[in-house]
Amino acid sequence: MEDSAILRVTTYLEELSNVRFDHFPGLILQGLQVIHVGKGFVQCKLIITDRVLGEDGTFHTGVIAALMELIGATAIYSDGGSHSHASIDLNYSLYSTAKNKEEVKIEARVVGRKEDLNSAVIEIRREYDEELIAMGRLRMVQLSLSDKHNGVHQASKL
């Protein structure tokens, strides 16, 4: 039987790929194809369209960053994380780009977990030649609604 977090991630990504254009994640994820979701691993494909192109006609770098954070966060969640995570660091490098109607493959995998800190590595590659477009690392911290004070858990005042 599949883990419930994996089922929720698969459903979440499929829903995001079908939302209207006026919703931000739907704008960049329209047409996203989920290839595989496993514990701490997400692999998807996306056809580049004019919605995600920059002025120069190539895959917009801001969209690449947003895509890395969204897919990286879903990989962390599929590894048994909770809904309550916040990104604390997204570091990525750009190596190439993609043009309109090219297909890219996005792969994210959890590479570390220590206490409340989770880390995922994300790669975006052009589908037809496997050329690396971008690689990044996302670090997320699990948010807690309670805090310890003098060794005793107390409810957060937020």
Automatic annotation (TrEMBL):
This is Acyl-coenzyme A thioesterase 13. Pfam families: 4HBT. Belongs to the thioesterase PaaI family. Its main location: cytoplasm. It catalyses: a fatty acyl-CoA + H2O = a fatty acid + CoA + H(+). GO terms for cellular component: cytosol; mitochondrion; nucleus; spindle. Homotetramer. Interacts with PCTP. One of its GO terms (molecular function) is fatty acyl-CoA hydrolase activity.
